[in-house]
Amino acid sequence: MNSEQSIVILTGAGISKESGLDTFRDAGGIWARVRVEDVATPEAFAADPVRVREFYNHRRARLTAANIEPNAAHHALARLEDDWPGEVLVVTQNIDDLHERAGSRNLLHMHGELLKARCQACGHVVGWRGDLSAGHVCEACGRTGGMRPDVVWFGEMPFEMERIYAALESCSLFLSIGTSGNVYPAAGFVQHVIARTRAPTVEMNLEPSEGASLFAQAIYGPATQTVPEYVDRVLAQGW
Ligand code: BJW
Q1: What is the pLDDT of residue 4?
Q2: How many A from CA of 120 to the centre of ligand 1?
Q3: Which stretches in the chain have pLDDT values below 70?
């Protein structure tokens, strides 16, 4: 173990599946029930803000339900951050708060956060746990009707990209957990690591992702089993 060795972990919806939250592209996932174009683009919000807010209100209510808790995979990543001598950065595509509830502190939400709202007019971001509606007033600029979920829709720039690419370029290990590898730029991170570093790359998923052949190592199974086992191994003997 070496304090110079940093670990970057990309997570996707699969890590939260066993906590009771839906993935997007699995059978029965979110995109099997609603069309991306209807709820996850700026054009959809402009055309039908009520529908888009309702879609996220429903998911926010689900996330804040008493029975939704971080699982063993979220906890294992928080333990890795606590016990590994070098930097551990979790870059999540997920808009849920299960990583932070499990104790991860060095965490970037590249697709935003469900428990925040943003004013379209002035950009002010505020914590948000209840339903969002057209009647809400921005506490910063006083305008009504422009509060939207602070999430990244298709065609919008993901958050924190400079910090993410800097971390990818200096990492000693790259892990990708519970993501299907369909959505860019996250799906391209593995290629970026391969091009810029000699770091090993590991995919942990239920099944091979779109980019599976790019990874040096693949571990398939439910995240609540594979991730704690992998973290134990890394903490005991590195990789
Ligand atoms: C388990 C498990 C268990 C299940 N254990 N595993 C053509 C080519 C290339 C790119 C583009 C293109 N045309 C357009 C683009 C860009 C576009 C894009 O990628 N489109 C593709 C569809 C082609 N991307 C964008 O527009 C992004 N912005 C952008 O590119 O800006 C320009 C830019 C330029 C240069 C640099 C940087 C930026 C924005 C993307 C926004 C994504 N938004 C969403 C919705 C908002 C948030 C929300 O509502 O939650 O984010 S879409 C949705 O997909 C969500 C997710 O974060 C994202 C990724 O999904 P994820 O996490 O991979 O979930 P699934 O369901 O796909 O996979 C789950 C996996 O888990 C599965 O494999 C299961 O097997 C597995 N699993 N149970 C382990 N127990």
Answers
A1: 86
A2: 23
A3: 1
Could you read off the pLDDT of 116-128 as tens digits, one per residue?
999 999 999 999 9
pLDDT at position 3: 73
Closest-lying ligand 1 atom to the alpha carbon of residue 187: 19
Catalytic residue list: 111
Ligand 1 atom nearest to CA at 95: 50
Nearest alpha carbon, ligand 1 atom 33? 157
Contact 171, 202 (CB under 8 A): no
What's the whole-model pTM score? 0.97
Amino acid type, 18: E
